[in-house]
Amino acid sequence: QPCSSSNVLFSLFQALHQLYYDPNIENKNLAQKWLMQAQVSPQAWHFSWLLLNLDKVPEIQYFGASALHIKISRYWNDIPADQYESLKSQLFSQITRFASGSKIVLTRLCVALASLALSMMPEAWPCAVADMVRMFQAEDSNVDGRARCLALLELLTVLPEEFQTSRLPQYRKGQVRSVLAQECGSVFPLLEQLLQQQDSPGFIKQKVLKCFSSWVQLEIPLMDCENLIQAAFTSLQDPELFDTAVEAIVNAISQPDAQRYVNTLLKLIPPVLGLQEQLRQAVQGGDMETSHGICRIAVALGENHSRALLDQVQHWQSFLALVNMIMFCTGIPGHYPVNETTSSLTLTFWYTLQDDILSFEPDKQAVYQQVYRPVYFQLVDVLLHKAQFPSDEEYGFWSSDEKEQFRIYRVDISDTLMYVYEMLGAELLSSLYDKLGRLLTSTEQPSSWQHTEALLYGFQSIAETIDVNYSDVVPGLIGLIPRISISNVQLADTVMFTIGALSEWLADHPVMINNVLPLVLQALGNPELSISSVSTLKKICRECKYDLPPYAANIVAVSQTSQCMWLMQALGFLLSALQVEEILKNLHSLITPYIQQLEKLADETPNPSNKLAIIHILGLLSNLFTTLDISHHHDDHESTEVKKLPVPQGPNPVVVVLQQVFQLIQKVLSKWLNDAQVVESVCAIFEKSVKTLLDDFAPMVPQLCEMLGQMYSTIPQASALDLTRQLVHIFAHEPAHFPPIKALFLLVTSVTLTLFQQ
């Protein structure tokens, strides 16, 4: 612990030197820990001033100022009331001293004084802010006027920031906030004067805008900010002030309270619209920063206040002009994120505007629908244009990070299109279909694959989440899909995903399956399309399984070349709809190669590569058994076909296969029992099967319980417990199967209790 004054100072210098200059990280950490204790010690009051007064390097002075701030902000109650005034005047004189000194120390001292002011307001220091302004405006021959002005602006900027992060109790926070809001009357006229003065240098104006930005977050009435917002608009013409002015305007417009001041909001529309020329020039000149900033301002006004501005029906044209300006930002030329990063800022605005329009009472809604439906149709065109891939050559130069950002951007566009469907309805699908039809049947000029892909992507976005079963354009679309000449991976992927999105429609119109299934099976052979083709086949097999028996042999044959987990789930759905002997025949050809591989692996000495191969094969079987369900326990479709199907007689095909491979699985286990991942993969096969088959799993119960008991007694593993839980859960109402499950449960319990005793 710090002790006498000179010793303390020596220790502090040593610790600070260690913190900043010692290469050893452990020494740095020790120093930091000791310094943090020193800052909160009672001696901190004394040594802080010494560190500030000495002619020391900024790091040491900074530590002194920080210690003062910590004492004032966290240990306020330790300070006797009769010392408030001297503390205040000491801080003022230090700030004046450092006004021309180190910037980091000055800021820390300002934060300390701000903290003091917040704790004293309003009783102990009634007009704190006005006092600060007066103190710094007073002539002080030692300090240059500009330095004093900057110090005052720094103090006024950190005051609201310190308020936001202060530890004041809730009731005090409300009280201090309202005092500060009133005190803006001492601050704003000064800021206006500094912005309007011809001879104010750029760095002062920048500081003024930052200060304004900080104050508006105290929920100051928007009308009180009007003059400064207008001054900030003027500052946008100065490249040096542009970024800070954008920040100030956006903060002022975005405060939640602003919507109460509709007249002020209406006054802001013309200056925002007045930025359009600057925006166009920025876009033409490739100045991304400027176009981004102007777009932020337009979106802040539109997104935060669309409801309030729509309510002003007599001003509908000026709001529509703002909407069109935002549309320009959405459709800004160039590819996101390489040539522009602005369009993504606008997407939420379109949701908000639509929600607000649809929330009006019917008459007003009808009027606005008339105005805005054409705007939203234009939006769809703009979004699909923005979703287009660049040329193959250009896309080849993109980094993997840029490609990933573009993928996410397209997902956002897809979500927006899906949302817009609520406003535009079936007419949106018809319009997309007409465009696609014209594109694919036009003999004039060959269309780019990018254009075709984007239109299909729009269709897929809507069909994925919205029930298109009643749409009269889907049959035409299914007819058009085979006409698309697929020249590259991105287009092929989108064709696949679009077919997948229409799988429920295909289930209701099975005659059309033959139009698209060959495309999917062909794509399965292309490794680059494995994700899209497999997920599409899985959807078709799940939704249309009762119409697929004629294609089953073909699908199984094509699938045998792939070793994909999802594909196994697709085949599980497919086989579920066949007759039992057909299922067994297909299962035999499908899994015999894997079983033979597994037999070979089970004979080998365990090593990392055969471990991966074993886990892979067990995973394929698990995935197949996840969806292979001939009793249709998990059918969510209440369709007539399900009811017509006779309940299959005889053993369940999954049980037949499990019984055939049971000994092989035991052999694998005997070698790999101490490997948690292999044990987990084995348990997964049974867990998936029992979940899918439910009571049909019964014939397996005795031998599985015996195997689980042996496993758990030898090396207890979590996966064995999970599987035991599953068995207890599913057969809890089947007294016939109680004996083996009961014996297993008792064994597992006693093994576990023995473990706990160790």
UniProtKB/TrEMBL annotation:
Cell location: Cytoplasm; Nucleus
Pfam families: IBN_N, Importin_rep, Importin_rep_2, TPR_TNPO3_IPO13_2nd, TPR_TNPO3_IPO13_3rd, TPR_TNPO3_IPO13_4th, Xpo1
Recorded GO CC terms: cytoplasm; nucleus
InterPro entries: ARM-like, ARM-type_fold, Exportin-1/Importin-b-like, Importin-beta_N, Importin_beta-like_NTR, Importin_rep_1, Importin_rep_2, TPR_TNPO3_IPO13_2nd
Keywords assigned by UniProt, alphabetized: Cytoplasm, Nucleus, Protein transport, Repeat, Transport
Annotated Importin N-terminal domain residues: 31-97
GO biological process assignments: protein import into nucleus
An example Gene Ontology molecular-function term: small GTPase binding
Family: Belongs to the importin beta family.
PANTHER family: IMPORTIN-13, TRANSPORTIN 3 AND IMPORTIN 13
Subunit structure: Interacts with UBC9, RAN, RBM8A, eIF-1A and PAX6.
Descriptive protein name: Importin-13
